[in-house]
Amino acid sequence: MSITADVTTGTAAARAERVTRVYGTGATGVTALDEVTIAMPRGRFTAVMGPSGSGKSTLMHCMAGLDRVDGGEVYIGDTALSPLGDRRLTALRRDRIGFVFQAFNLVPTLSALENITLPMDVAGRRPDAAWVDRIIDTVGLRRRLSHRPSELSGGQQQRVACARALASRPEIVFADEPTGNLDSRSSGEVLAFLRGSVREFGQTVVMVTHDPAAAGYADQVVFLSDGRIVDRMEAPTADRVLERMKGFDTAPERGPGENS
Ligand SMILES: Nc1ncnc2c1ncn2[C@@H]1O[C@H](COP(=O)(O)OP(=O)(O)OP(=O)(O)O)[C@@H](O)[C@H]1O
């Protein structure tokens, strides 16, 4: 039995309703998501955790409009994604969602500043200079703006990617293992920035992570197992998340009425 989390449509920046995603067909088909219902509350930092193969990346990709669902519906704000054609979906991702990936995904020939404003330049939108300035200061990149990615450390590159994600004031930022390639100090800087963007700017952030310490920066953690949401933790700490993760192989399934 899976549980649902926070389905309060009025306050959700994004939500999934009974979302199913199956890779392959027939006997070899894999149900990566099995009727997942979840809302990502506006202005909060949500971490998505679970064992390897539990469906974390699939959930993020479906909720961010990077992958199609086989059943159910995803909404960004009040916009349902499945009726959208490719062009409108691309425009929605560009205009309303910010992305941070494990591999930074910066353009090597552009400076840090050019990378930060690139999505808006591509969209033909004029960056809000005061806002971009504020982001640059918050992320601590003022003295690195003319550097190319190869001239920056991994942590600095990921902070450029975070600034890029926030520069267009997206409704929601999806971060997929944003600290997966970073040492603990750089991880701390990136996570503190994401945390601060929620606290100071009211940004909504959803982060997939394997790392209990990273999840400890979030307001809430949702736990996936076998393509279902099986638990949720408010005000997590790294220790509590670690304890919960240890229980995954042996934890009994929750029955009806046992939702957190
Ligand atoms: N493109 C694909 N084709 C076939 N199966 C896939 C595909 N993508 C994911 N899967 C399967 O779907 C399930 C969920 O995968 P997913 O990558 O979402 O899990 P995850 O929790 O993000 O895993 P990890 O922590 O290892 O990154 C797994 O069994 C995986 O093998």
From TrEMBL:
- All copies of the ABC transporter domain together span 14-251
CDD domains, A to Z: ABC_MJ0796_LolCDE_FtsE
Show the Gene3D superfamilies listed in the entry: P-loop containing nucleotide triphosphate hydrolases (3.40.50.300)
This entry carries the following GO cellular component terms, namely: membrane protein complex; plasma membrane
List the PROSITE patterns.
ABC_TRANSPORTER_2
Q: One GO molecular-function annotation for this sequence?
A: ATP hydrolysis activity
Keyword entries, A-Z: ATP-binding, Nucleotide-binding, Transport
Q: What is this protein called?
A: ATP-binding cassette domain-containing protein
Q: What is the lineage of its organism?
A: Bacteria, Bacillati, Actinomycetota, Actinomycetes, Streptosporangiales
